[in-house]
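Protocol step 4 of 6: record predicted structures for both targets in the notebook before any analysis. Target 1:
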Amino acid sequence: SQKMETRMKDLDGELSTTIKQYEEAKANSQKMEKRVKDLEGELSTTRKQYDEAKANAITMGAKLNQAEKELQALRNQHTDTVAQ
C-alpha cells in the first residue's frame, strides 16, 4: 500500500542518515586514536628530555660544588701564604 511504501522510504532515509553518522563517528574516533598516539609519543619524548635535563642539572651541580671546594682550598692556601 501507499502508506507502507512511504514508511519504507522514510526508514531507508533514516538508515542512510544513521549509516552516514556512524561513518563520521568512526572516522572521528580513528582521528582521535591517532591524536592520542601522537600525544603519547610527544609525552614520551618530553619525558626523556626532562630526564636528560635533570641528570645534566645534577651533574652540573656536583661539578659546581667541586669547583667551589677547590676555589675555597686555593683561597685558604693563598691566605696562609700571605700570612707567612
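Target 2:
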Amino acid sequence: MTTPSEHLIVIPGEMDAIQLEGAIGKLRVRVDSPLAPIAFQLWDCFDQSLRQASKVLVEFDNRFLLISGGGGCVMQSAQRSGNFVSDLESGPVKQGLRKVPPLRALLVSGAGQLEIRRIGVLDSLQKTQARAVVHTLRTEDGVVTLVLMQRLRGYDKAFAVLETALKHLATAKALVIDAFQSIRPNLACYTAKPDFGFGSDTPIYDVVTEIIEGLLDVAHANEAGIVADHDTEFLHDYRVAIRKIRSVLNACKGVYSPDQMNALNQSFDDLMAPTGRLRDLDVQELDQAGYFEIVPENLHPGLHLMARAFHKQRMAEHRKLAKYLSSRPYQKTIRALAAQVSEAGALEPGPKADQAGVRFARKMILKRYKKLQQAVQAGGKHASDAQLHDIRVHCKRLRYALELFAPLFPSKGVKPVLKSLKKAQEDLGAFNDCVVQQDALQRFLNTHAAKSKADSREIALSVGGVVTVLTHRQSIARAKSVAHLSRLGSPEYQKNLRQILTAPETKE
C-alpha cells in the first residue's frame, strides 16, 4: 500500500475533533468508537540513520509504516527474516529504506500503545464526503497523531477542506521528526565522530585530552550493542575509536609525561587486544556472503560447510567477548579511564603540554605526511604486499590526524585533502581485503578438521575457486592503489596540504 504525501497529516499531541469540526465550515465530523489499543514500536538504527534522513518507521498490527519528513508515507507487511533492511519483504517500505547502511540493524527506539479510530466528513444530508483513519500513538512521554486521509471520488472539495483543517491543527511549520521526538524525548543521539570544541589557541594538552575523552565515550556507547550482538558495526566502531586514541597518543609524544603516556598506551592496548579475533570472524562472515556470487554453483556446497564452521567459531568468540565486556574488571577499568580523562589536570603533563594546539598539530601532520611520502617512494610502482600494507597504515594515520585535529584548521581546505586521502585508503583497503581473505581461507584449509574426506574435498574446491577470483581482484586493486598513490605525492596535493597547515590562525 502506498499513500501519497497529501494523504498523511502528522499532529503533535491528540487530534481535537471539536476543533476540527469548527474548521470545516458547514460540514460535520463523525467520529467512530476506537478499536482496542494495540502495541506499536518505533524503529531506527543505532546511529539513527532514519532520523538523520528525516524518516520515521512505525510497526503495528504486523505492518510497517514509513513516514518521510515531507509527510509522505508508504506501508507494507512487517514480515521479515531478521532486522536488517535486506531481511524485509520486497515492497515500498524496503525501497524507502534502501539508503540505510546495509550493515546496520534496525532496533526498537520507542514503544507504546496505538489507538485507531475512523472519522467521516458529512454534508447536511448525512452523506459521507471524505474519510480518514486516525492513529493515536501514546508513550509514557507524550502523544502524536497520524491521520491517513481517504479521497472519495467526486468529493475533491470536501477532501481539500478536511486537509486544510487538519494541517491547521498540525501547524504549518510542524516537522514530522519533531512531532515524533516529543514521544521519545530521551532518545540519545549517537555519532562515531564526536564534535570537538577546541580552537587554534587551545593548548595541545587540552586538545588531545578532549579528543581522547570524546573517543572513549564513543567506545563506551557501543559496549551494550556488542554484548547484544545486534550487528557487527558496534564492534567496528568500538575498535576504530580505540585505534584512533592509540594513533593520537603515538603522534603526540611530549604532551603527557613519559610514565603517563606509557600507562595510557598500555591501557588502550589492553582494551583492544580481546576484540581482534571476533572482528576477524565478523569480517570473514561478511566476506563469506559474497563468495556465493563469485564462484559457480557447483562450488557452493563447500562454501556452506565453511560458513557453518566460521559461524560456530564466531558465536564462541562472541560469548567470550560479551562475558569480558560485562565483567567487573573491565567495567572498573573503563570507568577509571573515563574519570581520569574527564578530570581537569588528572593526566600528568609532558614538556610540550602548553604548546598551542595548532602549532603542534601542523608539525605532527607534516611529519606524518613525510612518512607516507617515504613509504610510497620506497614501494614505487612495484611495491610488495608488505609495502602496500605499510603505506595503508601511514594513510590511515594521516587521515586520523587530519580528521581529529580538523577544528584547528580552515574546514574548506581540509575536506578536499581528506577526500583524496580517503580514496587512496579505499583502494588500498580493497587490495588489503583480498590479501587478508586469501590468507584466512588458506589458514582455514590448513587447520580445519572436516568430518569426512568428501567434505574436505568440497571445501578445498570452493577455496580454490574463491582464491582464483580474489587473486584477479587483487591485481586490479593493486593497479588502482599505485595510480592513486602517485596523486598523493603530486605537487598539487602537497600544495593543498601545506596551504591548510600554514593558513592564518583563527582566534576562538
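Step 5 preliminary note on target 2. The longest strand covers residues 107-122. The beta strands are 2-3, 8-12, 28-31, 38-44, 55-60, 63-68, 73-77, 107-122, 128-138, 143-150.
Proceed to step 6 after PI sign-off.
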